[in-house]
Amino acid sequence: MLIVQKYGGTSVGGLDRIENVANRVAKTKFKGNDVVVVVSAMSGETNKLIGYAEHFSKDPSKREMDILLSSGERVTASLLAIALQEMGVGAIAMTGRQAGIQTDSKHTYARIESINTDAMRTELNKGNIIIIAGFQGINKEGSVTTLGRGGSDLSAVAIAGALDADVCEIYSDVDGVYTTDPRIEPRAKKLDFISYEEMLELSSLGAKVLQNRSVELAKKMAVKIIAKSSFNENEGTTISEEHEEMEEVLVSGIAMDKNQARVSLREVSDRPGVAAEIFTKLADAQVNVDMIIQNASTDGTTNLGFTVPQSELGSAKGVIKAFDHDIGSVDFDENICKVSVVGVGMKSHSGVASAAFTALAKASINIEMISTSEIKVSMVVDEKFGELAVRVLHEAYQLDE
Ligand code: ASP
Ligand code: MG
């Protein structure tokens, strides 16, 4: 098999931990596999480098930041290769450029455009383990670029896709993906399988095992991911295309997003085109609108409510101001929280939404907004009831069993 393994910051967060990773990598190789390893910087290192730059400038040049930040991953890659060589195992470290990773020029948030696998293939054919510095590539001008925070996951998935690897194992300090955040519900269970789509919903809603862009790419390239811990031998969670077995499970997980705010517009003129104008202007201002609710109109006006990320509320306010003549009154509320029930099983089962509403009603939690998709039911509740809602729903779908 050809296996890509990615080790996150905590997994390589000290010399003893790099030694532990070297042992695990060597073991995988001795089993007869070809192994490509992608590493993060040691935990805290990227933030430390950012701090250094901020000592000199409030707004350091992004091109220079990329040279600086890419160095963290190079430290780990080279140390891991040295550790393996010392064990008598053939290993070679590569920067993003040496691994053939070509990106666009958007410094500190670059996109991978292509990967030339020639150099990696040559080393694999020699029997070497390849250790690649994650989170980085090179643009057409030859400048180093980085892929955005958490970007080593993206490097690993892209490399696995380009090499047509059998699996991409993502190692961190958690055992895998859980039915919900174990800090909120200690009875949360680790999932054996989850589909890309469910993972995207759960991670955008707070389950931070994998960087979101990497899951999108894995889905696009059909790269099978296994998320597991580098500190034990537990099985982990497989993230792949959905299959029948997954559909038998009604609900896979419950996610919570506290980072939402609600905009309520009252007495909006009820003429064709108002909604179009408001939401076009919001989109132009890069505001990501999520849930939208419009009431039936009375007396020629209607009420319109929607949610936006808290960080985009300022921009939303600016846009809404321009519609003064069309809107009676406006209200902004940051004390809300979005709780979502996620599962591909919903595609083929009914009653999932009503079970959620019933469970929250029983706990006297008022639902303020609702939206559904094929695999998700999301509800907005008062922020102070968010964690209770998660526990109530976790219990209602018997996720602890
Ligand atoms: N070191 C980078 C970060 O902290 C990339 C990564 O760890 O994936 O964001
Ligand atoms: Mg990470």
Morphology = globular
Rg over alpha carbons: 24 Å
The unique ligands bound to this protein are: aspartic acid, magnesium ion
**Euclidean distance between termini CA atoms:** 34 Å
Counting DSSP H or I runs of 4 or more residues, the number of helices is: 12
Uncertain segments: none
Helix content: 25-40%
As a percent range, the share of strand residues is: 25-35%
Looking across the biggest beta sheet, what order are the strands in?
3-6-2-1-9-11-12-10
CATH superfamily of the domain at 2-173: Acetylglutamate kinase-like
CATH class of the domain at 2-173: Alpha Beta
The largest pleated sheet is described as: 8 strands, mixed
CATH topology of the domain at 2-173: Carbamate kinase
In the CATH hierarchy, what is the architecture of the domain at 2-173 at level 2?
3-Layer(aba) Sandwich
Description of the molecule:
- This protein has 401 residues and is an alpha/beta fold.
- It is globular.
- The chain has helices spanning 15-30, 45-56, 62-86, 118-125, 152-163, 196-204, 212-221, 244-248, 274-284, 313-321, 352-362, 386-396; strands spanning 2-7, 34-39, 91-94, 101-103, 112-115, 129-133, 136-138, 144-146, 167-172, 193-195, 225-229, 237-240, 253-257, 260-269, 292-294, 301-309, 327-333, 336-342, 369-373, 376-382.
- The chain has a domain at 2-173: Acetylglutamate kinase-like (Carbamate kinase, 3-Layer(aba) Sandwich).
- The protein is 35% helix and 26% strand.
- It starts with a strand and ends in a 5-residue tail after the last helix.
- The mean pLDDT is 94.
- The strands form 5 sheets. It has an 8-stranded mixed beta sheet, sandwiched between helices. Strands 13-18-20-19 form a 4-stranded antiparallel beta sheet, with helices on both faces. The chain has a 4-stranded antiparallel beta sheet with strand order 15-16-14-17, with helices on one face.
- The structure holds aspartic acid and magnesium ion.
